[in-house]
Amino acid sequence: MAKSSGRLVSLDIFRGITVAFMIIVNNPGSWEFVYSPLKYSKWNGCTPADLVFPFFLFIAGISAYYSLKKYGHEINGGSMTRIFRRTVTIFATGLFLTIFPYFIRDYSTLRIMGVLQRIALAYGIGAIICLTIKREYLWIIIAALLLIYWGLLAFFGGNDPYSPEGNFALKADVALFGKNHLYKGFGIPFDPEGILGTIPAVCTLIVGYFVGGMTVKRSANGKTVLKIILLGTAATGLGYIWNIIFPINKPLWTSSYVLYTAGIAMCFFSLIFLIADVLKFQVWGTFFRVFGTNALFSCFLSVIFTKMLLFIHVQSGTDKVTLYGWFYEKVCVAVAGNLKGSLMFGIIVMLLIWGVTLVFYRKKIMIRL
Questions:
Q1: pTM of the full structure
Q2: What Å distances lie between residue 284 and 23, 267, 277, 291, 357, CA to CA?
Q3: What is the DSSP code string of 77-89?
């Protein structure tokens, strides 16, 4: 644990907004009643909910720039130790959350990959690339990786290379992990956080790292904001155009999806950066800074809390239901109906997690990995 000190306020606010939105998106009272912007795309396309994951990777890239600055942005013993420790810890945390609370189980069917696992690998690989390649050449690396990934899917997939059943990412995951260790939510063994999709995910992190280098204190001015917005607009436009032949797709983490979402992240972050770090108007973001200064802890706690609500059963009439379902039906639906009640449930969960995290914020304690 460490006490908070000179931080990029806009980054904490942006991170906090993303955490708050993620908790609401991931915790509807019922998945049958969800407002459209809070639904993930079934396959191709991009909704606001589909922005959460790439936003986290973009944020991780900016954070990496600042955390690795004390090592001179070079490969050395200190930087490699930090990268390795953080990669392993985040991956292990993700695996723990996959297992919890069913520790006595059939591990032959355990899903290996997941959101935190991909963030861990993308961070580890991306951070090493950023410390190895000069910052001004990182865009070449991004372009090369995105084109390589496009080629892999296009030439080594089936007759329909961007479909759930015919994509090459699925083949790679089956070869590496086996079908039993993949996500089953698409009706077939297919992991949206699989190993091959980590290649373009690395690019999202590198974009964040590059932008992090633009936000150092001496560059906190309107010109920097304009540069980030222009880069973001260009990336979003390129992603949208590329979508014509290479669909924007989160489960496959397609190259067009990388550009499209990274561009939106740049534009959104630049506006927060302008308000919080250039104009120094920061009080409005206090609510989100509570989450932003302890983002991983907040995410961890939200998953643990939700899983416990699903794990604990209570009596409801003649039946036993999960505490999650009981609270949704007896409180949220009773007050606001199915659709609004479902949103109400997510907001309540978010506020409860925020309340716990507020204790850490007031004590100026950050839980770091």
A1: 0.94
A2: 20, 19, 13, 14, 18
A3: HHHHHHHHHHHHH
Domain count for the chain, please give it: 1
- Percent of the chain exceeding pLDDT 90 equals 90
Structural contact between residues 195 and 252, judged by C-beta atoms closer than 8 angstroms: no
Burial of 74 (0-12, 13-18, 19+ CB in 10 A): exposed
The residue with tokens 């329909």 is 160
**Which pLDDT value is given to residue 367?**
85
Contact 337, 349 (CB under 8 A): no
To the nearest 10°, report the CA torsion of 214, 220, 223, 224. 20
Show Cβ contacts of residue 323 under 8 Å, excluding neighbours closer than 6 positions. 308, 309, 310, 312, 313, 314
pLDDT at 1: 36
Range of the domain at 179: 2-366
pLDDT per residue over 279-318, tens digit each? 999 999 999 999 999 999 999 999 999 999 999 999 877 7
Where are the alpha helices (H) located in 68-191, listed in sequence order?
77-99, 115-132, 138-156, 168-177
